[in-house]
């Protein structure tokens, strides 16, 4: 009877029981590299800069329309410093399609408002506007760093990164003390911390030898002017992002997990990038995308809805004398994005038979969306079958994943924007615990298997 059980029943096994010693060693090395990518990539802009440095070290060059695109050629397009597309030209022409990995490197955070700086009761603050879906109560009393750019009145762009070096100051949003929190504690979680109270404390020392008002605010401006040459009006044309200050760390006595800010979706972006950088001359042209703006709906010139991607692909197709739409119709895209990992602390929102589990490998999602699959691209059985068989043939540990119970909520990815282009697309990625929190948790095994999944797709000849 046990033979029949083995033959007929679907029983996924724990990933750590299935990896070889050699794979385990590779997984550890991969995890270290990924953690260093995270520490260098706290924002979408930082991720682009980091990707370019890694890619150029591997022989990638900026793409120039009309340039020679011989098999093995490695190029990238920097989309306004906020997104990046990299390609390794394959042996087969683009008329046979490309193998694409699409991840996003924007993450939930607190953006400074256009007029952020104010003083109240001799404390100086930045007003923020949160970006993406956050649970506001999680962002108070968490040390923050500031990353971004300011475009000054004279047009010069100043880059600001403060809080990530040990000698740097950091920033904080205060919360109420429990002693005085009786009324606040009665409020629902979603209402206890209103958006307009997410104000970052940035200074308390007043300007000396001044008897005017707002001396603390003025002292902060004087500091900013000294260091960066900026004035208050310059905040109008700035993108400054407050992000959690913690570094990526191994978690657990067994060190099987990685804690960090921004696993969603840098964990999949890095998997794609790492796999792409290892390619020599793939059969199909391999394309890796770091998209921006996914957390606010993939809008904007740097989001996946932007024609920046089509412009790049069409330009490469033209060089090869290929019609873009023919290329798309033969292409495959893995929409590489994280999914929710089953959390036994909150069993009420997960459907146990169809959840992704930590340490069970890359999670394939036939569909995302909410309710009756609303907003999902819902991949076909054929597309799921292709990936399932490819991963099995390459010894990649994978699992099937749904994002929680049907009635519990839902979410989307860039998959539907790739499918809209007539590209066969499947969602897949790393299961994450406490997704969108300032500090998210993933398992090393799942990170490594997502990389192995991308590698198998980039190297496949179909
Ligand atoms: Mn995501
Ligand atoms: Mn997300």
From TrEMBL:
Required cofactor(s): Zn(2+)
GO biological process: one example: proteolysis
Keywords linked to the UniProt accession: Aminopeptidase, Hydrolase, Metal-binding, Metalloprotease, Protease, Zinc
GO molecular-function terms, A-Z: aminopeptidase activity; metallopeptidase activity; zinc ion binding
SUPFAM superfamilies: Aminopeptidase/glucanase lid domain (SSF101821), Zn-dependent exopeptidases (SSF53187)
EC id: 3.4.11.-
EC top class named in words: hydrolase
GO cellular component, one term: cytoplasm
Short name of one Pfam family: Peptidase_M18
Transmembrane segments annotated in the record for this chain: none
PANTHER family: ASPARTYL AMINOPEPTIDASE (PTHR28570), M18 FAMILY AMINOPEPTIDASE 1-RELATED (PTHR28570:SF2)
Family: Belongs to the peptidase M18 family.
Protein name (Swiss-Prot/TrEMBL): M18 family aminopeptidase
Provenance organism: Candidatus Avoscillospira stercorigallinarum
UniProt lineage: Bacteria, Bacillati, Bacillota, Clostridia, Eubacteriales
């Amino acid at each position: 009877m046990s033979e029949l059980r083995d033959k007929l029943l679907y029983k996924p096994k724990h990933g750590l029981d299935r990896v070889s010693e050699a794979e385990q060693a590779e997984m550890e090395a991969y995890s270290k590299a990924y953690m260093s990518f995270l520490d260098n990539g706290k924002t979408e802009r930082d991720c682009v800069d980091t990707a370019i440095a890694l890619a150029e070290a591997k022989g990638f060059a900026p793409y120039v329309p009309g340039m020679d695109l011989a098999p093995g050629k490695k190029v990238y397009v920097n989309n306004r410093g906020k997104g990046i597309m990299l390609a390794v030209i394959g042996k087969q022409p683009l008329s046979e399609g490309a193998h694409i990995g699409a991840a996003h490197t924007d993450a939930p955070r607190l953006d400074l408002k256009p007029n952020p700086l104010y003083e109240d009761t001799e404390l100086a603050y930045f007003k923020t506007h949160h970006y993406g879906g956050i649970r506001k109560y999680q962002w108070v009393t968490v040390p923050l760093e500031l990353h971004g750019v300011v475009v000054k009145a004279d047009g010069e762009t100043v880059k600001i990164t403060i809080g990530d070096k040990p000698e740097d100051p950091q920033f904080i949003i205060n919360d109420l003390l429990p002693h005085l929190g009786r009324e606040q504690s009665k409020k629902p979680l979603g209402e206890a911390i209103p958006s307009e109270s997410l104000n970052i404390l940035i200074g308390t020392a007043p300007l000396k030898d001044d008897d005017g008002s707002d001396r603390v605010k003025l002292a902060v401006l004087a500091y900013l002017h000294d260091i960066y040459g900026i004035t208050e009006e310059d905040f109008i044309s700035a993108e400054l992002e407050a992000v959690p200050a913690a570094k990526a760390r191994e978690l657990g006595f067994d060190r099987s997990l990685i804690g960090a800010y921004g696993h969603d979706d840098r964990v999949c972006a890095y998997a794609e990038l790492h796999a792409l950088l290892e390619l020599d001359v793939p059969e199909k042209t391999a394309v890796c995308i770091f998209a921006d703006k996914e957390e606010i709906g993939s809008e904007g010139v740097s989001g996946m809805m932007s024609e920046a991607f089509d412009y790049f692909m069409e330009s490469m197709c033209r060089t090869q004398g290929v019609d873009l739409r023919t290329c798309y119709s033969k292409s495959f895209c893995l929409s590489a994005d994280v999914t929710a990992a089953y959390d036994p602390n909150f069993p009420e929102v997960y459907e146990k038979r169809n959840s992704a589990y930590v340490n069970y490998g890359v999670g394939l999602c036939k569909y995302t969306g909410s309710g009756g699959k609303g907003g999902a691209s819902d991949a076909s059985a054929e597309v799921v079958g292709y990936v399932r068989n490819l991963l099995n043939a390459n010894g990649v540990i994978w699992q099937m994943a749904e994002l929680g119970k049907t009635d519990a909520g839902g979410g989307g990815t860039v998959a539907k924007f790739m499918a809209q282009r007539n590209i066969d697309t499947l969602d897949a990625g790393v299961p994450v615990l406490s997704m969108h929190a300032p500090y998210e948790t993933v398992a090393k095994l799942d990170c490594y298997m997502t990389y192995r999944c991308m590698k198998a797709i980039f190297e496949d000849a179909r």
